[in-house]
Amino acid sequence: MTKAIARPRLPALVAPDSFKGTMAADTVARAIAKGLRRAAFESIELPLADGGEGTAQVLLSALGGRWISARVSDPLGRPREASFALLADDRTAVVEVAAAAGLPLLAPAERDPLRASSRGVGELIAAAVRTGAQRVLVAAGGSATVDGGAGALAALEEHAVDCELVVLCDVRTSWERAARTYGPQKGARPEHLPVLEKRLDELAERAPRDPRGEPYTGAAGGLAGALWSWYGARLVAGAPYVLDSVGFDQHLRACWFVITGEGKLDQQTLEGKVVAEVATRARQRGVACHAICGACALSAFDLRLLDLQGVATAGTPEDLARAARQLVEREHPCNGLDRGAPSA
């Protein structure tokens, strides 16, 4: 007579992005893990980011380091305190564009990319270099600007900044598409778009390297392209960079399944956001992948492209916990121990 051998079950990997504007990635991960515990599942919490808001916190939590504050200009030139992360190696800093030139820093009536400047981002990079940083990771997402990085370039020149720059981009948009693609969401009216496009064209004509046609150069309203052209910055896709930095693949090898998520699944998700990157890596390793999001605007066909085993929606921490428990009880009903092959 044979009997099954009980073996300990592998944990789940909880690896979400933030729910933009509502919950940070670590809050989302904590809530999902809580739901899994209610279903008797252990998990590893691994908050992620794609180069947008929250990237500095994700890298700081995974790699260690400290926050440092500096006085910088906001998008309209007003002084404000902003922080950057100096990682544990004391030579790498993480600067978020959103901390100095982010759209949330402006009231809706103040949002005007004809006036908004990226100067504060240059000032924050300069502050990071003054603390000893030799390499600065610039998280490009969430900007209020379409100034082609002109403001940041002026500040970097004034402070004679000399460091390695790596821009973590959350979009692949090229320079010449930045104004029309992102201007409206930053407050530009239709009549402003030709003005913004002309501004970027003129700046590109003066650039040491022409950023037009290059992937990622339109990120942060052209700031990425300016750093690439004038300072030789390396432009990289933010999600893969962050996943590699926090050891996602190693965690994936040691898990049973993964739950990811973001505020909204939409067409941008398919263009290299966290959920798409997590789902791709999980599929390559034969690991089931689920997503919990605030809303889903993808068609059934697009969801099949992501190859997610399950999708649920939730808008609060308690909803996330409930969705995680329901998902795991439906898709992975085995409790306690996973039953291995029978022995003789």
Automatic annotation (TrEMBL):
Gene Ontology terms describing biological process: organic acid phosphorylation
GO molecular function: glycerate kinase activity
Gene3D superfamilies recorded: Glycerate kinase, domain 1, Glycerate kinase, domain 2
Keyword presence, NADP: no
Keyword field contains Glycosyltransferase: no
Keywords assigned: Kinase, Transferase
InterPro entries: Glyc_kinase_flavodox-like_fold, Glycerate_kinase, Glycerate_kinase_RE-like, Glycerate_kinase_sf
Family the entry assigns: Belongs to the glycerate kinase type-1 family.
PANTHER family xrefs: GLYCERATE KINASE
Protein name per Swiss-Prot or TrEMBL: Glycerate kinase
UniProt source species: Thermoleophilum album
Organism lineage string: Bacteria, Bacillati, Actinomycetota, Thermoleophilia, Thermoleophilales
